[in-house]
Amino acid sequence: MIEVKEIKTPRRIPFFGMVMGMVTVFKHAFQKPVTVQYPEKKDDQGDRFRYRIYLSTDDCVGCTLCEQVCPNLSITMMTHDKDNPRNKRKIYPSVNFGTCTVCRNCEEICPTDAIYLKDVFETSRTRNSFFYNPVELEKDEGDVIK
Amino acid sequence: MNLLTRIADIFGFLGHFPAYAIAYIVETLIVIIFGTVAVAGMVYLFRKYMARVQIRIGPNRVGKFGLLQVMADGLKLFQKESIMPSGRDDLAYKVAPVMVFIGLMMGFVFIPYGPLAWFGSLTVTHSDVSLVILFALIAIMPIGEILSGIASNNKYAMLGALRGVAKDISFEVPMMLSILSVVVMASANVTNPLDLNGIIQAQSIPFIILEPLGFIIFFISMIARASQSPFDMGESDSELVTGNTTEYSGLRFGMFYLGLFGTIFLGSMIVSIMYLGGYNGPEVGYLGFVWLLIKTMILVVITLTVWLSMPRVRIDKFVNFGWKILLPLSFIQLIAAGFLTLGGIA
Q: Do B308 and A18 touch (CB under 8 A)?
């Protein structure tokens, strides 16, 4: 026969649990709020946080590896007339940030490190303006006019 | 020299009787403004305290520290179209919120506020039976809630009102018995134990020390009277949409809302008068009102803590609790109060 150990529970005192609960609730009132008042104050991101994709058109050789590796077709190649001897076909990636999942495959695969990501994340735009062409990808976020 | 005579002196050119009549009206207006401001402050305090307990910040956008948030909400309610259900009982539907609000405001008039600095006593009126009058006045408010439930032509409102009635009758009797034991204790020392002033004067030792059981019963009853969280069966916002206020909108809803928070403030004030010695304290002739406010605010914070930490009691559990626990306890308290009075301890 299996002997079942009886777990000793402390004797229940009426209303004691309620009062302890109230004390806990009252103590919470003196804790620092976790809310961050976003536009005025910004919370620290982690060191490895990345969001916005940048493109250096001087380095891009138009190999289309980023387009092939993009898991949800956010990157499409696009003709951009720029005098770059290493990019004879004159095709450069363009990014739809509406579908980009920030998997960073494009950054990893890029042979010339032309595509890279930064921790800029304030890219709010109105509807249907998430599409960045190569010129816009090269600019800072503040300079992009949509 | 109290506030009433000071106001009457200003209107002294009208003769004795008209001056005092106007002084009473002016002081009643002051009290109503005080009541409204106190209720608005209660709403702000509740929102801010609830936010801090939940480790949030709370209203902080409208005005400095969000102080004007309540005013903004009031304006919003004021602008809203009042949508009324068809098939309502028109008169009862419209009278109910006014009844709740007026019952609350009349309760504020009979509170003995005590003296404050240069103004003297702030008490508006006093009667030999002001205790009875006060409890008769705040007993008007549940009638408004019941009327609103019946007149709305809505099943949720009706169920909420029925629950409210069941809740009200199960704590009213223990509450009245605990008041009776206070009166018994006060009658040992003063000649007017049914006067709230008399009860305060009788408390050279606050009654919370002499009858802690009565304090607990009365405090629970006052929380139940405000129909807030552990005892909000009338509202039951997760089961009945919002109970008896379901069909109300705009300013009429605002009156019910103010009634809820006002009852917490008024109830805390009554508890501090009955059991904590009201305006008694050091420098009573100068700071009496401040002592009353401090005691009230401590009780308000305790009440809000109860609100935020406890879930709603099921209605049958509360009825059991009222009739099987609170009522026998209040009888025991009454007998104990009798013994204390006869033994000359009080």
A: no
Return d(Cα B323, Cα B318) in angstroms, integer: 9
Q: What is the pLDDT of residues A1-48, one digit of tens each?
A: 778 877 777 677 777 888 888 898 889 888 888 888 888 888 888 888
Q: Given this model, what pLDDT does residue B332 score? A: 92
Q: Which residues contact B98 (CB under 8 A, 6 or more apart)?
A: B144, B255
Indicate the residue type of B211. Answer: E
Return the number of other C-beta atoms located less than 10 Å from residue A28's C-beta. 14
Separation of alpha carbons B259 and B102, rounded Å: 9
- Nearest residue of chain B to residue A23 (CA atoms): B305
Taking CA–CA distances from A30, the nearest residue in chain B reads B52
Residue B310's nearest CA partner among A10, A128, A21, A138 is: A21
* Contact between chains at B305 and A31 (C-beta distance less than 8 A): no
**pLDDT tens profile B288-302:** 888 888 999 999 999
Chain B residues with beta carbon closer than 8 angstroms to that of A37: 57, 60
CB pairs under 8 A between A and B: 39
Sign of the CA dihedral with A41 first, then A45, A51, and A57 last: positive
pLDDT digits (tens, 9 = 90+) for A66-86: 899 999 999 999 898 888 888
Arithmetic mean of pLDDT, B321-331: 90
pLDDT in tens, B5-14: 777 778 777 7
Tokens 């190649």 map to which residue?
A77
- What ipTM was estimated for this complex? 0.77
The torsion angles phi and psi of A53, rounded to 5 degrees, stand at: -90, 130
Q: What Cα–Cα distance (Å) separates residue B32 from each residue in B109, B120, B306?
A: 8, 19, 27
Nearest to A29 among B52, B60, B302 (CB): B52
Candidates A28, A32, A37; nearest CB to B53:
A28
Residue numbers in A near B52 (CB within 8 A):
28-31, 33
Alpha-carbon torsion (B234, B237, B239, B245), positive or negative: positive
The token duo for A50 is 């990345």
CA of A13 to nearest chain B CA: how many angstroms apart?
A: 16
Q: Write the residue in A22, A30, A32 that is nearest to B305 by C-beta.
A: A22
CB contact under 8 A, B56 and A34: yes
φ/ψ (deg, to 5) at A131: -85, 120
DSSP B1: -
